[in-house]
Specification:
It contains 1 helix and 5 strands. By secondary structure, the chain is α+β, with helices and mostly antiparallel strands. The strands form 2 sheets. A 3-stranded antiparallel β-sheet has the order 3-4-5, with no helix packed on it. A two-stranded antiparallel ribbon has the order 1-2. The longest helix has 31 residues, at 59-89. It is elongated. The relative contact order is 0.14. It binds zinc ion. Zinc ion binds at residues 9, 11-12, 14, 33, 35-36, 38.
Amino acid sequence: MAEIGHLECLVCGKTFQIPKFINFENYDGQVVCQHCESLLHIKLVQSKVRQYKVVEESFRRETADELFQIMNEAERKFGQKIEKSDDKNK
Ligand SMILES: [Zn+2]
């Protein structure tokens, strides 16, 4: 963890670049590994890593799964609504 500007991912172990908008002198927030898309939390004070932990592994894939579930539920509800309105018409 000597080289500032780069971080070793806690999930996949690959080195990735810290986005340039992050202030190394003082940052307490989230970064995303560009390799496995895991969400990590890092705290930087005076260009030194004070805290570094995994928030969520491959969070984008999980989000996609959640979205898929929500879409499925919405489709089911929408389907039911159509059936009900058809019943009212009869
Ligand atoms: Zn990674």
